[in-house]
């Protein structure tokens, strides 16, 4: 179910936020409170073109109940289950960025 392309890797950010983080992908039940080893949560890109691609790839129907322009906030996250390892950049010490 991976959906990111390597070209989008520059927009993938890892966030260590409080346990309220949950994945916005339909039917995904992952949240930070489950403490799943290696599971990380990522903000949508600020670039509108990439943001629209993410909405399509996570299969969110834009419509009356979901408007990407108003419902994707700084707190909206996608969990790492939906990314390939190649989508992440790493520091020299191996930390995901």
From TrEMBL:
<keyword id="KW-0862">Zinc</keyword>
<keyword id="KW-0238">DNA-binding</keyword>
<keyword id="KW-0805">Transcription regulation</keyword>
<keyword id="KW-0804">Transcription</keyword>
<keyword id="KW-0863">Zinc-finger</keyword>
<comment type="similarity">
    <text>Belongs to the THAP1 family.</text>
</comment>
<protein>
    <recommendedName>
        <fullName>THAP-type domain-containing protein</fullName>
    </recommendedName>
</protein>
<keyword id="KW-0539">Nucleus</keyword>
<keyword id="KW-0131">Cell cycle</keyword>
<feature type="domain" description="THAP-type">
    <location>
        <begin position="17"/>
        <end position="97"/>
    </location>
</feature>
<dbReference type="InterPro" id="IPR006612">
    <property type="entry name" value="THAP_Znf"/>
</dbReference>
<dbReference type="Pfam" id="PF05485">
    <property type="entry name" value="THAP"/>
</dbReference>
<dbReference type="InterPro" id="IPR026516">
    <property type="entry name" value="THAP1/10"/>
</dbReference>
<keyword id="KW-0175">Coiled coil</keyword>
<dbReference type="InterPro" id="IPR038441">
    <property type="entry name" value="THAP_Znf_sf"/>
</dbReference>
<keyword id="KW-0479">Metal-binding</keyword>
């Amino acid at each position: 179910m991976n959906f990111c392309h390597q070209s989008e890797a520059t927009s993938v950010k890892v966030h260590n936020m409080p346990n309220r983080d949950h994945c916005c992908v339909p039917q995904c039940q992952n949240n930070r409170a489950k403490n799943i080893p290696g599971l990380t949560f990522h903000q949508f890109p600020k670039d509108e073109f990439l943001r629209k691609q993410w909405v399509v790839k996570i299969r969110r129907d834009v419509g009356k109940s979901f408007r990407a322009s108003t419902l994707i906030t700084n707190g909206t996250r996608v969990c790492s289950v939906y990314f390939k390892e190649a989508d992440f950049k790493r520091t020299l010490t191996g930390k995901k960025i």
